[in-house]
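Hi Y.,

Following your request, here is the sequence exactly as I used it, all 116 residues.
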Amino acid sequence: MKPNVVKEKSFEFAVEVIILCRHLKENREYVLSNQLLRSGTSIGANIREAEHAVSTRDFLNKLSIALKEANETRYWLELIERVTIAGDYPIQRTLLLIDEILRLLTSIIKSLKQKS
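Below is the corresponding structure, written out as tokens. Let me know if you'd prefer a different format.
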């Protein structure tokens, strides 16, 4: 069976987000931490839902939601980086991961739309 790169990357990213959110909460940054946790883990959840889509349209819809969540997550990460509340946490790795997921999802969605 062929590996599902976007599924694997989104899971790896969710783990990274959970670790970052723990770090943020240790620094008493609860609001941004909760926003990031919600959107950052939702990406993989929507990709998992897409695996069992009942149609191509349903599949495309789930991936589109994952893309929107990834974009929102990128926003929260940029904000956290800008106001330097991540402290010594290496946020650049997290930003690289979300950018990779955004590219993968965009490519998959674009390809699906061209086929339809």
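Helices lie at 5-26, 30-51, 56-82, 91-115.

Thanks again,
Q.
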